[in-house]
Amino acid sequence: MELTVTAKNLPSSPAVTEYAEKRLAKVASRLRDDVPMRLVLRKEGTKIASDRFVAEVTATLKGGTVLRAEERAEDLYVAIDAIADVVARQIRRYRTRQSKRRTSLTDWETTVLQELTPIEPGAGVAEESTEAAVGPDGESVSELQDGHIVRTKTHEMSPMTVEEASSRMELLGHSFFVFQNSADNTISVIYKRHDGDYGLIVPERGS
Length: 207
Description:
CATH class of the largest domain: Alpha Beta
Structural class: alpha+beta
Strand content: 25-35%
Strand order of the largest sheet: 1-2-3-4
Number of strands: 13
CATH superfamily of the largest domain: Ribosome hibernation promotion factor-like
CATH topology of the largest domain: Double Stranded RNA Binding Domain
Order of helices and strands: EHEEEHHEEEEEEHEEE
Distance between the termini: 52 Å
């Protein structure tokens, strides 16, 4: 594992770095290949204790698949433990999908896996945008009529097929996924229905 640890608003701590390396090395050992992994640890000035310490991981797997996760806790070590558990679950999903290539699949699953080129729309670490106002906890927000946008993140979005988007959604364990459809370059949303099927929201071009 090629781990890079970056601390923001935190003093340098060899003990924390060593702990993070041990936890994430154990997780990365589930993979057959060494993978580059970036861990960002930061402290935010929020009044909510459980959101004070943030651990964010970005890992690039073989074939270009990018795993990304963020966890918050009132203690830095707890945040590291939480992020390690999340990444471990993502790796299990990734390995499960990889193993399906060697098992009997339905025609639809075979098509998905044959066309699959795992892509992460947010290939880099997300950067928070500058908002128009400041909330009571000191965090930048944008005001809406019925509430606040407390965090805005921007991601570079790479074109992908509907099949790639559905596979990426399953890998991340999300119920919906926003992507740029390579068929027509529109921004579309694929989501999982209660009956187990998928739905696709496609924007209608104005006249």
